[in-house]
Amino acid sequence: MFKFTKNWSKDFDISIVLILIAGLIFRGAIAYWIAPGYDESYYYIYSHQLDWSYFDHPPMVALSTGLGTWITGISNQFTIRWGALLLYTGSLWLLYLTGKRLFNPYVAKLTLIIASIIPAFLLVFGIFTLPDVPLIFFWSASFYCAVSEFFRDAEPYRPTYRLAILGVLVGLTCLSKYHGFILGLGFVIFCLTIPRYYAVFRSGWLWLGLALFIITLFPLWYWNIQHDWVSFGFHLSKRFKTPKTFNILGVLGVVLGTILFMFPGLGLPLWWIMGKNLGQQIPTFFSRKAHRNRSDLADRQWLILCVSVPLIVGFSFVGGYYFVTPSWVLPGFWTPTLLLGYWMGQKSKRSAYRWLKYSGITIASLLLLALLHLNLGIFQKPSQYGLFGGIVAPLDDVSTEVLDITQLQQAFVDSPVFSAALANSQFIFTHTYFIGGLIDLAIYPLKPIPVTCFCEDPRGFAFWNDPQEWLGKNGLFITNKRFVEKPEVIEQYRPYFQEYQKLGEIPIKRGGVVTNIFYVYQGINFLKVYP
């Protein structure tokens, strides 16, 4: 049991450092072994196509992805994840410091452990190089700054310079992912709903913070001004342009998806504790007496809800109309881990640590099995490493979409035909943007050749190169087995070249069995710009 206290300056706890180091080593091992995903490879292109911003996302993911490759000069699945590994360690540290300031060291430690073992957090925020990585880092920094500003011993509350710093930090959060704007909205909601903080809106620090926020966003609005605000248009209209009827099953799908993704033993309690706390908080705003007599603890918990609930409820509602991946909602659950840590802190230490211990063991075991299957095919039938003869055939196994691109890269080194074709080509193209990233990560370290996408939805590829420069030059077309069975995919590019021929196939193996195939074509003399 613990006693709630505002005194957070305790003696240094070496166990916190050990938890952070152990988590970094565990995540580093996964990052080293697991093949790159489609999105990760796509963001790798950001890192060598540096710009003020990008079609899909703000610019921060380009920096976090490029960190490891710039330091080492090596581009592979491990180095592109260095930024994720380091930034998530920083995010955990900031979350721990926030827990100490909001509650006490014991709650902070429980929160740190919870955030360190939730599998969705590990993968999306701490291993894979995604926009969510810098998002959560600056989200954590912003929230810590807000807590330091709003919960000081001084009475009555007086705004300070931290509001200006908060403007910069929220701006950096927005430069990581557009979710950052919802974080800023959460801070506004908090100040509007707690009379003690009305003084914020009369403070010059707020207006300085707002000015710094706008200045910090310069890369985002500068790039969008140059490109007719196409990035905002894509996220606000084109992504959801097809009207659909609301379906409550879609909302339930988002809820269940997040519970499973976060591991039911932690995801379900997170939903429950948020719902319970929200149910206790809302009635106080409809009673003057209850609102006037709100406790300091209630305000601290309300701040957590203000920055979390709008994002979670918003995307859950959108899920009733459109498909929403659990990762879109996931950032909203980051700060509520503090509520779960507080709730667990009221239980006995033995039961709390036992819960976390067995949850951690189960999660680590499941992740290990998944990793072994992705790399060795232990559940694949057939496979050299199949357990009990294997379970699922490669054709029915969606995990074969995780491709070992080192085999693609090595084929261009070993094969005289592919090596000569690469040396004699000035660009590479494919027919869908997500394959383009994998191709670029495999080939770019061999030859810094531009990769593009000739399709209706080229995403960022539409802004990175000018196809006019390739007229009269040679190009390589690369695709994989998933699409080559459609002849129209291959043949649609024949009119754009004087000659167009198949060079060969590159099998991708797992467990000694071919699970996918890359197909390589060469076009001689590019005649006209696609389409």
TrEMBL record:
It is a multi-pass membrane protein. It holds the Pfam family PMT_2. It is found in: Cell membrane. Its main location: membrane. InterPro entries: LipidA_mod_glycosyltrf_83, RgtA/B/C-like. One of its GO terms (biological process) is lipopolysaccharide biosynthetic process. One of its GO terms (molecular function) is pentosyltransferase activity. The chain crosses the membrane at residues 12-35, 80-98, 110-130, 163-192, 204-225, 245-273, 302-322, 328-344, 356-374. The keyword Transmembrane helix applies. Residues 56-223 form the Glycosyltransferase RgtA/B/C/D-like domain. PANTHER family: MANNOSYLTRANSFERASE YKCB-RELATED, MEMBRANE PROTEIN. This is 4-amino-4-deoxy-L-arabinose transferase. It comes from Aphanothece hegewaldii CCALA 016.
